[in-house]
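Re-running beta-lactamase to confirm reproducibility after the cluster update. Everything else is unchanged from the original entry.
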Amino acid sequence: MKNGLLIILCCVLSIQSFSQKTDKKLQALLETSIKGFEGQIGIYVKSLRTGAVVNINSDTVFPTASIVKVPIMIGIMDKIEKGEMHYDSSHIYKDSLLYEGEDILGSFKDGEKIALKKIMMLMLTTSDNTASLWLQKLAGTGVRINQLLDSFGFRNTRVNSRTPGREDIRKIYGWGQTSPAELGTLLEKIYRSDIFSKKACERMMRILGRNFWDENEAISMIPPYIEVFSKNGCVDASRSEVMVVNGPTNPYVFCVFTKNNKDKSWTYSNEAWTLQREISSLLWKYFEPRDKWIKP
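Result of re-run:
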């Protein structure tokens, strides 16, 4: 009996060790690719088939910009799971919710009805800020979202904006903050249905699979026939992106965050966007070498 338990324990430890191993070849390739970048960068990559990882400043805290909308989605889905909200419920838009910009929801008339699932779609698909701030409020404020994240073991991922007690840290990181390893792990948990019910996680994956922003970003280097579940976030000195690439033989998580970037331009040739596309192309060819798709 003791020998049997010992064998089981050894197997468990072996699996854990295997799942945490570093892909040294890929690590070297990525470290070479980011040399000379004029800013700070953090990268987390994980093969969802082998468990091998690459960590480059992956526990460093970065601004989320619009990637904070993933934690907000978690806050809303938690309420749906508990029966406190309903995915198909209708809500009344008020002009007081408007966040000035080019948002679709901001073009609504005061008093118009919209389904919760459509507000969520606008937040994740088009990165609509009016929808996002409304959902943050519906989720029970940033305080509740942060408590939920903490309960899941995420210590670096936080909502700062409109969250009492986080005014000073908001001045540093803006709307939200996270680390590449945490956001990558959060997406993996959604992908594996480890964070809520399978139904809830599948709903989140479907929303994350409809990203409108796919021209300048790393997602643009993935073939159009491959499922990608992603969210990106950008402000002047920070361009970041997190995704699960559901490759046919080697699905993987890719999370890249930048801050204090010298190049603050908003053109296709922006240094951070260019680097992220190059890394994304490298990863696709690395994990799916038999695929012949080449982006023109």
